[in-house]
Amino acid sequence: MTTTPLILPDAAEGRWLLVVVGRLDGTSLPPKGLFFEPVRGYIDDIGFCSGLDRALAQRPPRQEIVPYDHMCSDRFFSFRPDESGSSLGSVEVKEALVYDQYMRGDIDFTGFRVTVSLREQAYQAYLSHVGLMRQPELRDRESWDGRLLFRIPSRPFAFPMPRGNSDPWTFGKRVVDPLQVIARFAFDEIEIQLLRDDRGRRVTMGEAACDGDPGWQAPLRLRA
After folding, report:
1. Are 137 and 147 spatial neighbours (Cβ–Cβ below 8 Å)?
2. Could you tell me how many helices (H) and strands (E) the chain has, helices first?
3. What angle is formed at CA 27 by the lines to CA 22 and CA 29, rounded to 5 degrees?
């Protein structure tokens, strides 16, 4: 495994990237207080970009009106170690149940989860890159807020429209079962960008999710 940059050739060469912009979840760790959980989080934005066109395109569809409220989360990501493949890692995109943060449980409607599996050495490099970071106080507008993005070479694929029960809190047999796999593929390159600077302060991201910024902390670039 080496740490070399991803090469983005011109759009004519058809170099597409799956780009996920998300926010790490929080967890309680010793000695006390909340820290960011590096292995899972929530997706803020997702799509594909290619070549000189650095703006996200081909985002997953969303219904104009969904039968659940703002207390629910419907898009997730996670990282895990996996030595079963010969590549640097793999991605599985699969339907996932919407999670009600207030009720602390799943409901009968679909979002999706992006699971990134990495070879052990790459996984440990990712954990070290994130580090043990405490979540900022609510009024702290400068400390890193757990946001990150990652880019993986991938041909664009279609996301299904979310589906489920018109009353997703109904008990009994679920309308959405079984949950469907949307895409699976292996990869030998990944770039992980924490949206913070070298002093640990949060940075903002513009519209061009495929571009970096000189003020950002250097990304983690892994290649088999």
Report:
1. no
2. 1, 11
3. 140
- Exposure class string for 179-213: b at 16+ Cβ within 10 A, else e: eeebbeeebebbbbbbbbbeeebbeebeeebbebe
pTM value is 0.89
What whole-number distance in Å separates Cα of residue 200 and Cα of residue 143? 6
pLDDT in tens, 113-140: 999 999 999 999 999 999 988 888 888 8
Asked if pLDDT for residue 4 goes beyond 50, the answer is no
Report how far apart, in Å, the C-alpha atoms of 88 and of each of 42, 120, 123, 188 are.
23, 9, 10, 5
d(CA 5, CA 220): 9
Burial 92-131 (b: 16+ CB within 10 A, else e): ebebbbbbbeeeeeebbbbbbbbbbbbbeebbebbeebbe
Task: Tell which residue, 66, 83, 73, 77, has the closest CA to residue 151.
Answer: 77
How far is 88 from 224, CA to CA, in rounded Å? Answer: 5
**3 state SS of 165:** coil
- Tokens standing for 157? 């694929």
Distances from the Cα of 201 to the Cα of 37, 57, 146, 169, angstroms: 18, 28, 10, 39
